[in-house]
Every structure is written in structure tokens, then in C-alpha cells.
Amino acid sequence: MQNLLDYIKWRGDLLVEKVPFCDVDALILSQLSYTRLTGIVEEGFDGIPVTIEEAGRIALAEPERLKQSEDDDLWKLVMESPRFKDLILTGHIDHFDIATEKQFSAMTVLMPEGKAVIVFRGTDLTIVGWKEDFNMSFADFVPAQAEAVAYVESAAKACPDRDFYICGHSKGGNLAVYGSAFCQPELQDRILQIRNFDGPGFSGENIEKPGMKAILPKTRTYLPQSSVVGMLLEHEEEFTVIHSKSIGLMQHDVYRWEVVGNGFVIEEETADSSQFIDKALKQWLQNMPKEKREAFVETVFSILDDCDAVTLKELFSKHNALTVMKNLTAMEAEDRDMIQEGLHIL
Q: End-to-end alpha-carbon separation of the chain, Å?
């Protein structure tokens, strides 16, 4: 199987000026956005921009910045690739706010010939990031979505002579679509393409709004054949199914997506398991009123309130595991019933 790393080895010598930007390029930039670039790329659009080669040199020297082990190989390849190494990174933002339950990060990649790519980071391993994702099941919008709109407008203002590709993986894909749909209508004319890589959809109310309808022709979602995350909530845009060599939730990992030439290995449809999950989750949402969904999510995450964990990994320490068990035991009967009802419906 060949993946996005092999794509760079094959086609990394082809400049973007000669061979146009493609969806695999967008996926590569979406994965790079998971790297913690604070202190490497200055915040906002007024700072000194850096090239991918310069950013990668610092990131590789501080491996704690990387999301997963394969990112090391990815940075090494793009740093040496004529196609990627001189692309310019600017407008980096990384905001994390426990009080408002927001996890948001974005960057802009300046390319030749008057084009740029806005890249939104997906959910990281923080509990706040995952809580914000769950909030999408009942909220019309979450703080990261509102900031995505503001970011698209800021990038357009900072780069008035450029047109944009907009992309992201996981929640980043959702933000790419949302930011494009709800930015100022006149800016939508400058958006070339929107790519959502296995990101969740939206509430039925948002799907029907004029801004969402306006960007549909430019929007495409890519899903692995056993997608779980990308099947959440409602989608109206076209989607393409990619072959992944993993199973279940592990297919969310883009390093397992199969690439051929400048595109993906395509499946005819999602797997039966993915269709079943899609049907089950939509039925769960239909059978639980919005206020009950909110109460369910708030009650589940309240169990974690006394933990000193910031990330999901830290939850599994002995101390935090005991805290979770203690909170479950001490929970009011009404709250316990709320969790049981939600799980029973699901």
C-alpha cells in the first residue's frame, strides 16, 4: 500500500507552479497542522512568515511538538521536497480555553501564483477538545466554529490579492466547511475548494442555511470506507470513499489512507459497519430532544471535573481513574438515570 509519504517521494520534485495543488497536497497540509507551531510561526498575519523547511527544522528538534511518530517522517520529506519546502506559513493561531470549552488552531500557507491554503487543525488529545466535539450534538455552533469564521475573514483581509483553498482533517474538516459557509458572502467568491477529510457534519438547521448551500459546489468530503467520525451529524456535500488498510476507528488515521498518483484509491461506498453506525447515531439524535442531549453530554463530562487531567492520556493514571470511580459512585440518582437513558437509547 502507498500512502501520503510515498506521494511526496514520487511527486515532491514537481513544483506547484507546474503541477496544480491537489487533494493529497491538502491532506498533507492538514496533517502538518497537528504539529504545535506556537513559537515557530508567529501568531496572526503581522508576524514574520517562515517556510515549511524552516518550521520543520525546529519542530523536528523538539519532537514533543509532533502528534504521532509518522509526523517525523512527514516533516523530513516536506522539508526536502521542492514542492513543499519553500511554501510559506503565516497567520498561525492556537487557542485553548477551558472556560469556553474551545480548542482551535489554524494556519495559512502562502503558495505561488496568488493562491493560499487555510488549514484548520482537528481535535487534539485534550479533554476540552473532545468536549467541544460532543457539544456539536446539541449546539447550533461551538466556539471553534465561530472562530473559524473569523479566521477565514481575517486571512482574506490580510491577503486581499489571493484566492483560497480551505481544508482540515477531523474537526478541522468541519471547521473548513463551517468557516467557508458562514463568512461574508462576498468572500466565498475567492474560495476555490473546500476539503473535509473525515470530519463530522452539521445540525439539520445549519445544513439548510443559504451560506451552506452556496459553498456546496466547491465542497467535497473524503471518508475512509469504515468511517465513524465523518458519519456524525448531517452532510449534504458530495463525498468520496477512500480505501484504508486499517479497521474501525483506526481508519481515521490519514497515514492508513491509500494513495495512487496524485489521488486516492477509491471505494464504491462505505462499509456496512459505517452505514450501520451512521443510521444508529442519527436515530439516537432523533430520539433525544436537544435539551436531553445537552444534559447527557454535560453529565458524562461532569464525572471528569475533579480530575487533574488535561489530556485523554492523563485520564488513565491511577489517581484520575480512582477520581472517576468516586464521582460515579457519588453521582445523584437523577444524573445516573440521565446517563443510563442516553446509553439505552443508543
A: 36
Helix (H, G, I), strand (E, B) or coil at 215: helix
For β-strands 163-169 and 191-197, DSSP reports them as parallel
Q: Give the helix/strand (H/E) hosting 339.
A: helix 333-345
For the whole model, what pTM was predicted?
A: 0.86
Provide the sign of the torsion angle of the four alpha carbons 264, 265, 266, 270, taken in this order.
Answer: negative
Give, in order, the Cα–Cα distances in Å from 122 to each of 58, 169, 179, 340, 345.
22, 5, 14, 30, 28
SS (H, E, C) 76-135: HHHHHCCCCCCCEEEEEEEEEECCCCEEEEEEEEEECCCEEEEEECCCCCEHHHHHHHHH
Cell numbers at residue 240, please?
468520496
Q: In 3D, which of 253, 261, 259, 221 has the Cα closest to residue 240?
A: 221
pLDDT tens sequence across 278-317: 777 777 777 777 787 777 777 777 777 777 767 667 767 7
The widest CA-to-CA distance across the chain, in whole angstroms, is 65
Closest CA to 284 of 200, 344, 231, 345: 345
Contact 104, 110 (CB under 8 A): no
Write out the H or E segment, with its range, that includes residue 239.
strand 238-242
Take residue 126 and report the three cell numbers written for it: 485534550
The three three-digit cell numbers of residue 211, written as one number: 451560506
Residue 229 contacts residue 198 (beta carbons within 8 Å):
yes
pLDDT in tens, 214-232: 999 999 999 988 776 666 6
